[in-house]
Amino acid sequence: MEKIxxxxxxxxxxxxxxxxxxxxxxFMTQAGLxxxxxxxxxxPYKSAIDIMQDLVHRSTRSPYTxxxxxxxxxxxxxxxxxxxxxYAALKSPIAAEREAATALVPIVSPYKxxxxxxxxxxxxxxxxxxxDLRAPGVAxxxxxxxxxxxxxxxxxxNNRYVEIDKLVxxxxxxYAETQEKRKAIDDLYRQIADRAYATAxxxxxxxxxxFIRNVNNLIRQTSxxxxxxxxxxxxxxxxxxxxxx
Length: 245
Prior knowledge:
Strand content: under 5%
Order of helices and strands: HHHHHHHHHH
Mean pLDDT: 90
Distance between the termini: 55 Å
Structural class: mainly alpha
Number of domains: 2
Helix content: over 70%
Radius of gyration: 22 Å
């Protein structure tokens, strides 16, 4: 039985986030609320979306947002690179590298999947991972795997992200309110997804199956558009850096 795919909605900017939920609500109406088990969840979900749309329309996009998006993507890549390098070294033909990886894997394993965590938590966790990897008795293993420069670069990215995030918060007084509303919508969406899956299992019907397919298609399209946007931001930043030389 098909279920709604897992999706990290927190990566989306406010416009993308609101657009995603607006589309989901449209699919709910199309399917028929009773057919997906979401009759009582529809009013608060629709109301939360309307409030969020108003906040998006009232707020202006921060000039720091493009840099923040790129930094977030880059630090995700950097964290994944460090962790993947450590795990890959477990199979190294060089004994010293295998020994170093064996010592480091227990340290970095709690940080796997860090990119899917809430942004504030991710910032703290990246800092924690870096501190752990620089601890006495550990740093030598990092050097064995030639990861010192990568960790230094990751620290720069994460520190800059935290700095930019503070500027955005100061610049946009509605930030806290927006984050609160986003969380409320996301919580309702997850309840709707769970109800739809339960309905598909217990009282299957064509409408709930169609709803699940439509939402999964939307998730794929939204993810592709997000990745394309971030990739373009990186290209633009690279061009700006090149032109500035």
